[in-house]
Amino acid sequence: MLGRYDEFPANAFRLAQFAYSDSLQTLQAVIIRALHALNQQTIDLSIITAASSPNYFVNFEFGVADSDAFCFLDQKELDRLERALRTQTFSILDIFCGARYHIKKGTGMKQSLQFDYSVLRFMFEKPDIDLSAHYIRGNQRIPRKDFVLYLKSQIDKELVAKQHETIILKHLF
Asked: Could you say which of 24, 44, 157, 169 is the most buried, measured as most Cβ atoms within 10 Å of its Cβ?
């Protein structure tokens, strides 16, 4: 089923709860667009977390579940999801999140570091949106709280650009 991973771990931990009173279709489309945009960027890790060492960068790789696999969120997948959202909303939206870290040396050369892998689950029960995660592997260079706040900021940026209200953080677990 599009948006849902059949093997999502039962031992996922709850990260946050948000509130949003506008259309869930709008919010889900914005979440997907925000994740797609993040797939295109190299981000200075200090923008996401104060716990970062200097010259550390991250590239995210987000994918959306489709039953037993995740599809990389490229333009083709974005188009497919936006078409699906014209006729339905998701009660659950499962996301693969890969974080590729690297450090820039004084010479400008990049040195790759260990990756982080996790799966995220957005659960939509209006007006609440719960975000849970299961950490797969890596050393978690981004603290959970910082990741949630950064993700919220990127979703809010997309909502504001579309002239919609932002999501409200109700709880950070």
From this structure: 24
The CA-to-CA distance between both ends of the chain, in Å, stands at: 29
What is the pLDDT confidence band of residue 124, given thresholds at 50, 70 and 90? very high
Which region, left, alpha or beta, applies to residue 136 given φ > 0 means left and ψ of -120 to 50 means alpha?
A: alpha
Strand 92-104 vs strand 110-112: parallel, antiparallel, or unpaired?
antiparallel
Q: Would you state the pLDDT for residue 173?
A: 92
Q: What is the pLDDT of residue 108?
A: 79
Residue 105 predicted with pLDDT over 90 = no
From residue 152, alpha-carbon distances to 16, 124, 141, 149, 169 in Å are 10, 15, 18, 5, 8
Q: What is the mean pLDDT of residues 45-51?
A: 95
Q: Are 30 and 22 in contact (CB under 8 A)?
A: no
pTM, whole model, 2 decimals?
A: 0.94
- Alpha-carbon distance 125 to 20, whole Å? 10
144-161 helix and 24-39 helix, angle to the nearest 10 degrees: 110
CA atoms in the 13 A half-sphere facing the CB of 86: 5
- Residue 8, classed as helix, strand or coil, is coil
